Amino acid sequence: xxxxxxxxxxxxxxxxxxxxxxxxxxxxxxxxxxxxxxxxxxxxxxxxxxxxxxxxxxxxxxxxxxxxxxxxxxxxxxxxxxxxxxxxxxxxxxxxxxxxxxxxxxxxxxxxxxxxxxxxxxxxxxxxxxxxxxxxxxxxxxxxxxxxxxxxxxxxxxxxxxxxxxxxxxxxxxxxxxxxxxxxxxxxxxxxxxxxxxxxxxxxxxxxxxxxxxxxxxxxxxxxxxxxxxxxxxxxxxxxxxxxxxxxxxxxxxxxxxxxxxxxxxxxxxxxxxxxxxxxxxxxxxxxxxxxxxxxxxxxxxxxxxxxxxxxxxxxxxxxxxxxxxxxxxxxxxxxxxxxxxxxxxxxxxxxxxxxxxxxxxxxxxxxxxxxxxxxxxxxxxxxxxxxxxxxxxxxxxxxxxxxxxxxxxxxxxxxxxxxxxxxxxxxxxxxxxxxxxxxxxxxxxxxxxxxxxxxxxxxxxxxxxxxxxxxxxxxxxxxxxxxxxxxxxxxxxxxxxxxxxxxxxxxxxxxxxxxxxxxxxxxxxxxxxxxxxxxxxxxxxxxxxxxxxxxxxxxxxxxxxxxxxxxxxxxxxxxxxxxxxxxxxxxxxxxxxxxxxxxxxxxxxxxxxxxxxxxxxxxxxxxxxxxxxxxxxxxxxxxxxxxxxxxxxxxxxxxxxxxxxxxxxxxxxxxxxxxxxxxxxxxxxxxxxxxxxxxx
Amino acid sequence: xxxxxxxxxxxxxxxxxxxxxxxxxxxxxxxxxxxxxxxxxxxxxxxxxxxxxxxxxxxxxxxxxxxxxxxxxxxxxxxxxxxxxxxxxxxxxxxxxxxxxxxxxxxxxxxxxxxxxxxxxxxxxxxxxxxxxxxxxxxxxxxxxxxxxxxxxxxxxxxxxxxxxxxxxxxxxxxxxxxxxxxxxxxxxxxxxxxxxxxxxxxxxxxxxxxxxxxxxxxxxxxxxxxxxxxxxxxxxxxxxxxxxxxxxxxxxxxxxxxxxxxxxxxxxxxxxxxxxxxxxxxxxxxxxxxxxxxxxxxxxxxxxxxxxxxxxxxxxxxxxxxxxxxxxxxxxxxxxxxxxxxxxxxxxxxxxxxxxxxxxxxxxxxxxxxxxxxxxxxxxxxxxxxxxxxxxxxxxxxxxxxxxxxxxxxxxxxxxxxxxxxxxxxxxxxxxxxxxxxxxxxxxxxxxxxxxxxxxxxxxxxxxxxxxxxxxxxxxxxxxxxxxxxxxxxxxxxxxxxxxxxxxxxxxxxxxxxxxxxxxxxxxxxxxxxxxxxxxxxxxxxxxxxxxxxxxxxxxxxxxxxxxxxxxxxxxxxxxxxxxxxxxxxxxxxxxxxxxxxxxxxxxxxxxxxxxxxxxxxxxxxxxxxxxxxxxxxxxxxxxxxxxxxxxxxxxxxxxxxxxxxxxxxxxxxxxxxxxxxxxxxxxxxxxxxxxxxxx
Lengths: 697, 697
Known about the structure:
The structure is a homodimer. By secondary structure, chain A is an alpha+beta fold. Chain A has a domain at 456-649: Butyryl-CoA Dehydrogenase, subunit A, domain 3, CATH 1.20.140.10. Helices cover 54% and strands 9% of the residues of chain A. Chain A has 27 helices and 14 strands. In chain A, the strands form 4 sheets. In chain A, strands 1, 2, 3, 5, 6 and 9 form a 6-stranded mixed β-sheet that branches. Chain A has a 3-stranded antiparallel β-sheet with strand order 4-8-7, with no helix packed on it. The longest helix of chain A is centred in the middle third of the chain and has 32 residues, at 354-385. The radius of gyration of chain A is 28 Å and the shape is globular. Chains A and B meet through strand 6, strand 12, helix 10, helix 11 and helix 12 of A and strand 6, strand 12, helix 10, helix 11 and helix 12 of B.
């Protein structure tokens, strides 16, 4: 493993706070303790993250733009070899194979690589987080001894062959079959039609010599559902496909072009019986199937549950990428000037424009919330995967939380990197300033490792199940009554927080209205009530058809699908809010608490503003208070403006992580040079007179 | 020019309408007349568009993915040479130089090239729409004779050197100077500091041998503001910079990598006096400055007004790109199946999922609105640029409309192409399916030819000016009273449309509420009132400081900047709505009127939903009606589902425009093959039994 290097290098925090028209007397202002917040953001794995950040500074791991497709792919493979030689990938694996058995730390380290090159990150993720992890989690000792060492060392580059052209998120329906032949004690892997080709597989186009292949296990005429098999696919010497195996290159993609994605198909390929990764299901030499999990459904979800680490790590990676994008755009915005300011002869810094603040600071607040929420998720993951608290309930909760947070943070990254790129204008479009490249590479994060909409629907189904559990044994009429009361806000108003939802009786002034919304208990209640009410509304609709035909039930579910996904999103937002609130509650430094409290408020009020129509139509926030929300956000922006550089400084990026010329301080130097030029010209008495001024005389 | 080829080729309209659970008895359903709507979408230049679409089918003009930066640039140059040899670029230019003097038609043809390759489009746009157009519009006969023929023929590839590293949208503040030297009768072009380097200039990195350079014109010690100069920059033989000229390559970008963007700087470069493009301002041999436009401000805006054609053409191009993205994603969605459907043994087509409809159909409606709005804009452009109705007022109206529509349509394209790519999952991320490439290429459209936020602020200033004009001579108190009445909805409610805004008195049923919102006059009033009220609110805020110091006034303006930009967006949406409504009013075919009416409703109600919080807090729509908006949108989605393929068919794309394997029908064939496989297996009696079924027994 990499040693912990002392962090003596210069930090990329612009030294001087530029003049701001928004900041008043800076002396009496509260001040963020940047080092303290930086420690908070490092979460539960501070040392691992610092080590990984040191690794990410190595220029051998940095993305280079303008390479051809082949060059990018070869570079990523070379980067992985360097990584493997450094033992970076060992952390998750068993101690007897040189690892540390540190599941959570492994993800923390992985996440930090996003600043170096997402292609390296994902190509490594395919090798160690999917291919080798499948052997580890779905295989048993024989597979660990036989296949895992070469997978870990990269001697065998591998593909993770789950997705098919015709089946992405619906893994249970893959068409590839693995039929057991007791005569030869082999499985026969077969692709029965074009839609069952494995597709979008990292490493499959060129580098993989083996694959973990998901296929329907058929023995003695019974289909036992999807299992995973270890299948050699290429001759390591020649790079040619082995007999019966074929494939195609997925070619150029929207990003991540260092990863060689491709397709695979199998024509009755025979593998030994023992190549079935048999932790959760096995076939005896005579073809008898056995499993420790009796229910085929639960067995399937248990096997797929090992995939949750991908989702967890994407939540963390995209949060760091969002932070990097904001670091670049906000640094530039604090130096770049455009159009005359209120100060004569001086152009205004971009960050002093209200619109510019509006575009970037709420996204900064969201990113902060994600840092805290991600740490909660990472701990939940480690609890289960370390075996420390590996219960069914914990696994289900982990999967639900990951399925809610991964969509929110991956979409947020695309949105934030795009806004950051636009906020930097033409320079934001240049590859050298990194925003476009990061966005392109992260684009696929919203549909891989579980399509975001499908994941949110999973969360929604869990919310509906939990909701229904409350009513075990209740009649349909009881249920309808409860839902009606929930929707009418009875539960909400009886929760002791009447002071917010007084639609018609709201006679208090605007200021008072905002005060009520600033209370954390009220905020929690508003966010929680929105989830509960949306679910109750959907539950009531589904309840109406609970005795109807399956097609009618399916139609009713579909008619509420959009709302269900919105409810899941609301639930994810609530988890982020709770994590941020808990983190804030733990702060004792007064200045930090104040400034971070404003960030928390900005995050929360941005949620209220986004969902204001819902709160208004449901009578949870009055029109009068609703009107004040936007004004309060604008006041928060003014307050946060002078603390912006501190807030991005706490991300702890160093120049080797940033690498964007516009965020290097060069823009500040250019602006100073321009102003000095005009000042000298005026002083020289040789400045041309403006035509307008000649007319005034 | 290219001949009008008869359109005998096969159309890319999937032949069969797939089974849809949403469509009921198809026989009695209204039907869109696809050919009629296709003609409507072609707008005022049907023949020109058909010709240009034929050109765009030529594979020599098609983008190829995976090329290196150099290869992409050389290919784009070669494409332009082919184009030039075909005379494609002549349309806008004077008849005496072989052109057609068809300003509007030229843009229509240009717009259609987006389906071939945006790099080709924009590199050509730089050459003919900016470099040559500057010579045409800012120069006089001498320049037309001397420089224009080679610019048109591409003998002289040129750059349009306006933007500087330190000044993008604020062109008036560029640092480059052109100082007149009467002794030699030359201008001296100079770059005084790094921030004044010209930057992001297409053709500047490699191919341009001349540039139209914008610089502060200084003569006799007076700065007459920004003018444009013709400056040779490279030796055509060697490709080396001429003495005194230097530059840098902008390198790899987020997209449009066929365009070689670069930087230029000038060290006291001397050019003849006559290289000033002197249509709006001239310098006599003795250094005396003259201009037909007395006001320096108006002169500047007149010169920059010639740039409006870029904005107009981007509005059209991005609308076509959005249509193409939707064509690809909706075709795929109508064939691709995922997860079990209500029909046993059959998986459900993506387009039958409510969420999928929600993601794509409102964007389809928006795209339709943009087609109609763009045609209004293109006609306004042609009225001015043909000279037919070239008045100050028309120019200003044209510029305001372009400044409002270009931001909306360019953002819409990025949003739509992204949603389309996500809706296609992993296959959407492959370059071969075109969505990621189109999005990457179009990314810069939102910040070039006028940054979207800056353009919308221009619109907002115009709206404020118009608002203030109503009150010429009024006191501050009068103004405040009027604004208060406007905000309170007095103007709105007295407009005879009381039936919508009855916040507290709304006792009618939900259905009735939606009925009221379906009336076009009501829709118009709601959209118009929102603009008027937002502007009145801002006007009232600014009125409070009208006697304050300039810094206080600037601070007040800044405190309302975000709202002002939102008001401008609302104004743009109103223009789109009006254009769509007018187009719909002209339809006589009953089926078309019905289906297109639903598209219009979907567009309008999506606006109401988006701005619902505003309408609720301002009492324009009651909470009860507000709650019904989303439900009505969902009903519209169900209604439109069976007409989706007709609606995208009316875009008139042919296979050579689409070129995405997933929209070729291949997915439908794959799905049919998979279903046939399982049907045959079942029929054979050899299908494995599902483990679940063995347990039930």
